[in-house]
What we know:
2 copies of one chain form a homodimer. The first copy, chain A, is mainly β and 120 residues long.
Amino acid sequence: xxxxxxxxxxxxxxxxxxxxxxxxxxxxxxxxxxxxxxxxxxxxxxxxxxxxxxxxxxxxxxxxxxxxxxxxxxxxxxxxxxxxxxxxxxxxxxxxxxxxxxxxxxxxxxxxxxxxxxxx
Amino acid sequence: xxxxxxxxxxxxxxxxxxxxxxxxxxxxxxxxxxxxxxxxxxxxxxxxxxxxxxxxxxxxxxxxxxxxxxxxxxxxxxxxxxxxxxxxxxxxxxxxxxxxxxxxxxxxxxxxxxxxxxxx
Lengths: 120, 120
Protein backbone atom coordinates (compact mmCIF):
# COMPACT_ATOMS: atom_id res chain seq x y z
CA UNK A 1 0.00 0.00 0.00
CA UNK A 2 1.40 3.35 -1.07
CA UNK A 3 4.58 1.79 -2.38
CA UNK A 4 5.82 3.08 -5.68
CA UNK A 5 6.34 0.68 -8.58
CA UNK A 6 9.51 0.75 -10.67
CA UNK A 7 8.82 -0.72 -14.10
CA UNK A 8 12.39 -1.87 -14.78
CA UNK A 9 12.60 -3.70 -11.47
CA UNK A 10 9.28 -5.44 -12.09
CA UNK A 11 10.21 -6.52 -15.60
CA UNK A 12 13.34 -8.18 -14.19
CA UNK A 13 11.15 -10.51 -12.14
CA UNK A 14 9.84 -12.63 -15.01
CA UNK A 15 10.81 -13.88 -18.44
CA UNK A 16 7.79 -15.72 -19.84
CA UNK A 17 5.78 -14.32 -22.71
CA UNK A 18 2.02 -13.66 -22.92
CA UNK A 19 1.64 -13.97 -19.15
CA UNK A 20 0.55 -10.61 -17.69
CA UNK A 21 1.55 -9.81 -14.10
CA UNK A 22 -0.53 -7.54 -11.89
CA UNK A 23 1.49 -4.61 -10.50
CA UNK A 24 -1.28 -2.28 -9.38
CA UNK A 25 -5.00 -1.98 -8.78
CA UNK A 26 -7.22 1.09 -8.67
CA UNK A 27 -10.90 1.79 -9.18
CA UNK A 28 -11.59 -1.79 -10.19
CA UNK A 29 -8.88 -1.64 -12.85
CA UNK A 30 -5.61 -3.53 -12.99
CA UNK A 31 -2.21 -2.29 -14.07
CA UNK A 32 -0.35 -5.22 -15.61
CA UNK A 33 3.06 -5.79 -17.16
CA UNK A 34 3.68 -8.33 -19.89
CA UNK A 35 6.44 -9.47 -22.20
CA UNK A 36 5.28 -10.36 -25.69
CA UNK A 37 6.99 -12.31 -28.45
CA UNK A 38 5.45 -13.70 -31.60
CA UNK A 39 1.80 -13.73 -32.58
CA UNK A 40 -1.06 -13.83 -30.11
CA UNK A 41 -4.56 -15.10 -30.89
CA UNK A 42 -7.33 -13.05 -32.50
CA UNK A 43 -9.85 -12.04 -29.84
CA UNK A 44 -12.08 -9.31 -28.46
CA UNK A 45 -13.33 -8.28 -25.05
CA UNK A 46 -17.08 -7.78 -24.97
CA UNK A 47 -17.24 -5.37 -22.03
CA UNK A 48 -13.68 -4.14 -21.47
CA UNK A 49 -11.63 -1.44 -23.14
CA UNK A 50 -7.92 -2.20 -23.02
CA UNK A 51 -4.91 0.12 -23.02
CA UNK A 52 -1.51 -1.03 -24.34
CA UNK A 53 1.45 1.18 -23.42
CA UNK A 54 4.75 0.13 -24.98
CA UNK A 55 7.66 0.38 -22.54
CA UNK A 56 10.26 -1.31 -24.75
CA UNK A 57 10.25 -2.53 -28.33
CA UNK A 58 7.67 -2.20 -31.08
CA UNK A 59 4.20 -3.73 -30.97
CA UNK A 60 2.11 -4.38 -34.06
CA UNK A 61 -1.57 -4.31 -33.17
CA UNK A 62 -3.50 -6.01 -35.92
CA UNK A 63 -7.15 -5.22 -36.56
CA UNK A 64 -9.34 -6.78 -39.24
CA UNK A 65 -8.89 -3.71 -41.45
CA UNK A 66 -5.54 -2.24 -40.46
CA UNK A 67 -2.40 -2.60 -38.36
CA UNK A 68 -1.21 0.02 -35.89
CA UNK A 69 2.51 0.15 -35.02
CA UNK A 70 3.01 1.18 -31.39
CA UNK A 71 6.50 2.36 -30.49
CA UNK A 72 8.08 3.05 -27.12
CA UNK A 73 6.27 5.68 -25.06
CA UNK A 74 3.15 5.34 -27.15
CA UNK A 75 -0.16 3.80 -26.20
CA UNK A 76 -3.25 2.54 -27.95
CA UNK A 77 -6.70 1.97 -26.50
CA UNK A 78 -8.57 -0.97 -28.00
CA UNK A 79 -12.29 -0.42 -27.44
CA UNK A 80 -14.53 -3.22 -26.24
CA UNK A 81 -15.93 -5.41 -28.99
CA UNK A 82 -13.10 -4.76 -31.44
CA UNK A 83 -11.22 -7.82 -32.66
CA UNK A 84 -7.48 -7.46 -32.36
CA UNK A 85 -4.30 -9.48 -32.39
CA UNK A 86 -1.05 -8.26 -30.79
CA UNK A 87 2.03 -9.28 -32.77
CA UNK A 88 5.60 -8.84 -31.54
CA UNK A 89 8.19 -9.78 -34.20
CA UNK A 90 10.80 -9.09 -31.51
CA UNK A 91 10.27 -9.01 -27.75
CA UNK A 92 8.07 -6.17 -26.53
CA UNK A 93 7.43 -5.02 -22.97
CA UNK A 94 4.03 -3.51 -22.34
CA UNK A 95 2.06 -1.97 -19.51
CA UNK A 96 -1.68 -2.68 -19.64
CA UNK A 97 -4.59 -0.82 -18.04
CA UNK A 98 -7.85 -2.70 -18.06
CA UNK A 99 -10.71 -3.79 -15.79
CA UNK A 100 -9.84 -6.42 -13.22
CA UNK A 101 -12.31 -8.72 -14.98
CA UNK A 102 -10.32 -8.78 -18.24
CA UNK A 103 -9.17 -12.17 -19.54
CA UNK A 104 -6.08 -11.99 -21.75
CA UNK A 105 -7.61 -14.04 -24.56
CA UNK A 106 -11.04 -12.37 -24.38
CA UNK A 107 -13.62 -14.46 -26.21
CA UNK A 108 -11.08 -16.77 -27.85
CA UNK A 109 -10.73 -20.42 -26.96
CA UNK A 110 -6.97 -20.66 -26.72
CA UNK A 111 -4.30 -22.46 -24.75
CA UNK A 112 -2.76 -19.02 -24.24
CA UNK A 113 -5.51 -18.20 -21.75
CA UNK A 114 -4.27 -17.18 -18.28
CA UNK A 115 -6.95 -17.28 -15.63
CA UNK A 116 -4.97 -16.70 -12.45
CA UNK A 117 -2.51 -13.88 -12.79
CA UNK A 118 0.44 -13.45 -10.45
CA UNK A 119 0.91 -10.23 -8.56
CA UNK A 120 4.53 -9.15 -8.52
CA UNK B 1 -10.82 6.27 -32.32
CA UNK B 2 -8.12 3.64 -32.49
CA UNK B 3 -5.39 6.22 -32.96
CA UNK B 4 -2.24 5.65 -30.99
CA UNK B 5 -1.00 8.36 -28.61
CA UNK B 6 2.64 9.44 -28.57
CA UNK B 7 3.49 10.95 -25.18
CA UNK B 8 6.31 13.17 -26.44
CA UNK B 9 4.15 14.67 -29.15
CA UNK B 10 1.33 15.37 -26.70
CA UNK B 11 3.63 17.00 -24.15
CA UNK B 12 4.82 19.40 -26.86
CA UNK B 13 1.28 20.76 -27.20
CA UNK B 14 1.14 22.64 -23.90
CA UNK B 15 3.37 24.42 -21.43
CA UNK B 16 1.19 25.38 -18.46
CA UNK B 17 1.57 23.71 -15.11
CA UNK B 18 -1.06 21.97 -12.98
CA UNK B 19 -3.48 21.79 -15.91
CA UNK B 20 -4.10 18.14 -16.84
CA UNK B 21 -5.00 17.35 -20.45
CA UNK B 22 -7.12 14.36 -21.39
CA UNK B 23 -5.39 12.06 -23.91
CA UNK B 24 -7.45 8.91 -23.56
CA UNK B 25 -10.61 7.43 -22.10
CA UNK B 26 -11.49 3.84 -21.28
CA UNK B 27 -13.88 2.10 -18.94
CA UNK B 28 -14.98 5.38 -17.39
CA UNK B 29 -11.37 6.30 -16.63
CA UNK B 30 -9.30 9.11 -18.10
CA UNK B 31 -5.67 9.07 -19.12
CA UNK B 32 -4.27 12.56 -18.58
CA UNK B 33 -0.95 14.28 -19.07
CA UNK B 34 0.24 17.13 -16.87
CA UNK B 35 3.32 19.27 -16.32
CA UNK B 36 4.00 20.08 -12.69
CA UNK B 37 6.24 22.69 -11.12
CA UNK B 38 6.29 23.84 -7.52
CA UNK B 39 3.95 22.84 -4.73
CA UNK B 40 0.35 21.84 -5.26
CA UNK B 41 -2.37 22.05 -2.62
CA UNK B 42 -3.06 19.40 0.02
CA UNK B 43 -6.16 17.44 -0.92
CA UNK B 44 -7.80 14.05 -1.12
CA UNK B 45 -10.32 12.35 -3.40
CA UNK B 46 -13.15 10.72 -1.49
CA UNK B 47 -14.13 8.13 -4.10
CA UNK B 48 -11.27 8.00 -6.60
CA UNK B 49 -7.93 6.21 -6.55
CA UNK B 50 -5.32 8.07 -8.57
CA UNK B 51 -2.25 6.79 -10.42
CA UNK B 52 0.78 9.03 -11.03
CA UNK B 53 3.29 7.76 -13.60
CA UNK B 54 6.40 9.91 -13.97
CA UNK B 55 7.46 10.34 -17.59
CA UNK B 56 10.18 12.94 -16.98
CA UNK B 57 11.71 14.43 -13.87
CA UNK B 58 11.27 13.57 -10.20
CA UNK B 59 8.02 13.94 -8.29
CA UNK B 60 7.84 14.21 -4.52
CA UNK B 61 4.50 12.94 -3.29
CA UNK B 62 3.94 14.20 0.22
CA UNK B 63 1.65 12.42 2.63
CA UNK B 64 0.91 13.48 6.19
CA UNK B 65 3.38 10.90 7.54
CA UNK B 66 5.93 10.44 4.75
CA UNK B 67 7.15 11.55 1.35
CA UNK B 68 7.56 9.19 -1.60
CA UNK B 69 10.05 10.12 -4.33
CA UNK B 70 8.81 8.97 -7.75
CA UNK B 71 11.43 8.83 -10.48
CA UNK B 72 11.06 8.35 -14.22
CA UNK B 73 9.34 5.12 -15.22
CA UNK B 74 7.90 4.68 -11.76
CA UNK B 75 4.31 5.04 -10.65
CA UNK B 76 2.44 5.45 -7.39
CA UNK B 77 -1.22 4.80 -6.70
CA UNK B 78 -2.78 7.16 -4.16
CA UNK B 79 -5.84 5.44 -2.68
CA UNK B 80 -9.09 7.30 -2.22
CA UNK B 81 -9.38 9.21 1.03
CA UNK B 82 -5.64 9.68 1.52
CA UNK B 83 -4.43 13.27 1.81
CA UNK B 84 -1.55 14.05 -0.50
CA UNK B 85 0.36 16.93 -2.01
CA UNK B 86 2.42 16.64 -5.20
CA UNK B 87 5.59 18.72 -5.11
CA UNK B 88 7.88 19.28 -8.10
CA UNK B 89 11.04 21.19 -7.17
CA UNK B 90 11.86 21.10 -10.89
CA UNK B 91 9.46 20.50 -13.77
CA UNK B 92 7.94 17.03 -13.88
CA UNK B 93 5.88 15.42 -16.62
CA UNK B 94 3.31 12.89 -15.45
CA UNK B 95 0.72 10.57 -16.91
CA UNK B 96 -2.36 10.17 -14.71
CA UNK B 97 -4.89 7.39 -14.71
CA UNK B 98 -8.06 8.06 -12.74
CA UNK B 99 -11.86 8.04 -12.98
CA UNK B 100 -13.37 10.57 -15.35
CA UNK B 101 -15.07 12.16 -12.33
CA UNK B 102 -11.77 13.13 -10.67
CA UNK B 103 -11.20 16.82 -9.90
CA UNK B 104 -7.53 17.79 -9.72
CA UNK B 105 -7.85 19.54 -6.36
CA UNK B 106 -10.12 16.89 -4.82
CA UNK B 107 -11.81 18.24 -1.70
CA UNK B 108 -9.64 21.36 -1.47
CA UNK B 109 -10.98 24.85 -2.07
CA UNK B 110 -8.21 26.20 -4.30
CA UNK B 111 -7.73 28.53 -7.23
CA UNK B 112 -5.72 25.70 -8.79
CA UNK B 113 -8.99 23.84 -9.46
CA UNK B 114 -9.56 22.92 -13.13
CA UNK B 115 -13.14 21.96 -13.91
CA UNK B 116 -13.11 21.72 -17.69
CA UNK B 117 -10.13 19.84 -18.99
CA UNK B 118 -8.94 20.10 -22.56
CA UNK B 119 -8.60 17.02 -24.71
CA UNK B 120 -5.45 17.11 -26.77
